[in-house]
Description:
The protein has one domain (2-253): Rossmann fold. Helix content is 42%, strand content 13%. The protein is built from eight helices and seven strands, in the order βαβαβαβαβαβαααβ. The chain has helices spanning 10-21, 48-56, 72-86, 110-136, 162-181, 200-208, 213-217, 228-239, and strands at 2-5, 26-30, 62-66, 91-94, 145-149, 188-194, 250-253. It has a seven-stranded parallel sheet with strand order 3-2-1-4-5-6-7, sandwiched between helices. Strand 4 (91-94), helix 4 and strand 5 (145-149) form a beta-alpha-beta unit. Helix 1 packs across helix 8 (228-239) and helix 4 packs parallel to helix 5 (162-181). The termini are far apart.
Amino acid sequence: MALVTGAARGIGAATVLELCRQGYAVTALDVCSGGNVLPGVGYPMANRANLDAVAAAFPGRVLTVESDVRDREALESAVNATLVRFGRLDAVVAAAGVVVGGLPQWETPDDHLQTLLDVNVGGVWTTAAVTVPVMLAGPDPSGCRFVAVASAAGERGLFKLAAYVASKHAVIGIVRGLAADLVGTGLAAIAVAPGSTDTPMLAATADLYDTTPRELGGQQGIRRLIAPEEIAATIALCCSPAGAALNGSVIRADGGFG
C-alpha cells in the first residue's frame, strides 16, 4: 500500500500508475486547486478531473484525496483514510511541488520564496512527519520506504531560480537527516532527483527562460526530455525491497544533466 502526493499529473500521476501496475493499492493525494495559484506560481495547478483520470486507470485500486501538503491535519486525515481503506502503509512518495522563479536572487519577492518553502520544503517535511511513524508502527517497517522527489536543482545552481534551488537542496537535506534518524529500523528514506522531465512544471520553467521544454531536454546528456514514466519507474525501484540499500541516497535520474 502506497501514498503519493502531487498525484494528479506529472511525475506524481505517473508514479501512481506505475505502483498500481506493480500491484500496490495507492492513495493519490493532490490539492486540486485548479486555477487558484500561490504567490509566484505562474501556471494553473492540477484539478479534480486530473486526479479522477488517474484513478480511473485502476478502478478500485486508487483512493483519491483532495488535500494540501501544507496542512498537517489534512495529511493525518488522509493517512487515516488510507489505513481504513487498505489496512496498512508501506511506501510514501512526496511528489508535490511547485516552481517559482524568473528573477535574480536579490530581486525575488519574499512571498515567492515563502511559497517554495511552504510547498516544496514544508510539504515534504510534514508528509514525512505524518507518515513515517505510521510505517514504523506497521507490521513490516523494514519493507517500508519514504521517497521524496527533489530535482537536479537540488545539487547545483540554476540562474533565476535561486529560491527554487534552495528549496530542492532542502528536500535533499530532509531526506538525509531522516535517513540518519531511521538507522536500524530498516525503513529507507531516499531522494530522487529528476532532470528536465516532460511535465507542466517544466513547461512553466521553460517559460521563465523564454525557451521550450524540448530545448531544455536537449541540454541533458541523453539529448531529450525524460518521460514522467521513466522517473516513476525509478521511484518504484526505490519503493521496492531493493530500495533498502538506497537509504540516504540521492538517485540522480537526470539524463546526464550538465
